[in-house]
Amino acid sequence: MAQPGSNHDAQNPVIQQKKVIITNNHGEKLMGSLHETGSAEIVILCHGFRSTKENNTMVNLAIALENEGISAFRLDFAGNGESEGSFQYGGYWREADDLHAVIQHFRGAKRVIHAILGHSKGGNVVLLYASKYHDIQMVLNVSGRHNLKRGIDERLGKDFFERIKKDGFIDVKNKTGSVNYRVTEKSLMDRLSTDMHEACLKIEKGCRVLTIHGSADEIIPVEDALEFAKIIPNHTLHIVEGADHRYTSHQAELALVALNFIKTGLQQDKDSP
């Protein structure tokens, strides 16, 4: 929130944060938090794998936007956080459709969806959305994965394919032996069949895309960001030096880079006829 006495505080003394419930096309209620500044424009923020709208990065970005007078909406995808539905290991395109339901809701309320931003798996979701719906002019991909065939054995083990073919599922357990989540064969195949390269080739030139990635990302290598830069037509790349996957020590720089991109886009839209 802005400090008392700042220009923003004088213009807009109360930032309202309210819960919003939106039904997806599967009849599931999606929960979200709206940081309402009164702006016509709104930015939608999408969390990553096994995360929620309460993730530190999602909250910090929403606050950074509201401090600039831009409304933000933090979403829980189906099966995550407070939203209805069952958690799914894959479901990338399904989450893109959840995002579509959210965008339709706000458009129905006469809001302008200025940008969509996703972190990690959410980065993949916003890119898939842009490739399918072609109705968003600004996309921010924060640490998304280019090759979804990678990064599986770190979580499921080297022999994951043989095990899931044999048993039909793999239970991922924590250090105490409790089951964190179940990966079904169907959800694994959903991930393996999601082709980010092919999808990104379908993003239109009129859509401005920013990829932000940490140089010290321990979950998704920075090389993935370079691959996105090669194939997305209207693309800007920003590497945050020293940042890990969660931007643990680089939250302020992440917010600054994202805000500059979003505000520049807003100005360009106002300047264009």
TrEMBL record:
Annotated Gene Ontology cellular component terms: cytosol
Range of residues in the leader sequence: none
Pfam family for this entry, one: Hydrolase_4
Residues of the Serine aminopeptidase S33 domain: 41-140
InterPro entries: AB_hydrolase_fold, Hydrolase_4
Listed SUPFAM superfamilies: alpha/beta-Hydrolases
Top-level taxon: Eukaryota
PANTHER family cross-referenced by the UniProt entry: ALPHA_BETA-HYDROLASES SUPERFAMILY PROTEIN (PTHR42886:SF53), RE40534P-RELATED (PTHR42886)
Protein name: Serine aminopeptidase S33 domain-containing protein
Species: Vitis vinifera
